[in-house]
Write a structure and sequence with these properties.
- The protein is α/β, with parallel strands linked by helices and 300 residues long.
- 51% of the residues lie in helices and 7% in strands.
- The protein is built from twelve helices and four strands, in the order ααβαβααβαβαααααα.
- It is elongated and about 65 Å long.
- The relative contact order is 0.14.
Length: 300
Amino acid sequence: MDSSKIAARIAQFELIHISNPREDTIHGVLDEMRMVGRHTVGRPQKGIQFLAPSFSGKSTILKSYADKANAEAAAGAVPVFYMELASATTPNQMLDQLLTTLGDTARVSSEAQRFKRACDISRDRCIELFLFDEVQHLISNDTARVAWRVTEAMKRLLNEGVAPIAFGGDLSATSLFRSNPQLRNRLLTPVELPPLDYSNTADTSYASIFFDRLDQKMVDDGLMSAKASLGSGQIPSALCAASSGVLGTRCNIVREALRIALKRNARKISAQDISDAIDNWAIPQGFAPSNPLRGWREAA
């Protein structure tokens, strides 16, 4: 298969979204926050930490929730506002980013005016939940003082009673909340998305279901002609072992196996393609110390 066709199918793969029980549970928590927020609008709102290892699917879960909620909204309304925080963000930069994302291009001079405008426009756009992602950027390449001031601005948003806030980020963001006990006191029980344990039967079962659905979706979308048995046999546990249980890393291994299969014009991804993807991508990138499929061959 030529490069342009391979690129088109890889792009299709990157757009695939697989609904799964873990995502459904977290979406349920966000639903509850929105409903409580509707009944308590104008009163101080609550926040929640959603911190998880990189590539675990955290951002995908948040974005899919926002997309689903906003697709059903009335014209001009943004019930769930998603924003990925830029690195080294100051309070004014955060508020400007929020306003720009909402389509407001006017600029006011002071932080107090920016804050008021952000609250007013958020109410006008019927925001019921803020999703601030990559909050660890607040403590990257900047001083603790600036990070503290940004979390103070977020705490003020909660106190203003506009809407609840979910804070997404990697595990390094834990220190951000520890440094602001007043904000921490406004948070609900954290949402967790731990890596899957390939020695745990429940986790292995979950992975099998997820990758069987991904396998079927690739066939349904015409990426492959036949399923690859991604959800059965040795492959689910091998993918789990080669990715330290991180779902996004496993999906990346499958993507690289798809690329290999397409290059050889195969009808389906083989176990050898998965093995080669682990050798060529996961191990060099430092995600897998060894290849659990090395030397394994499918039956003819």
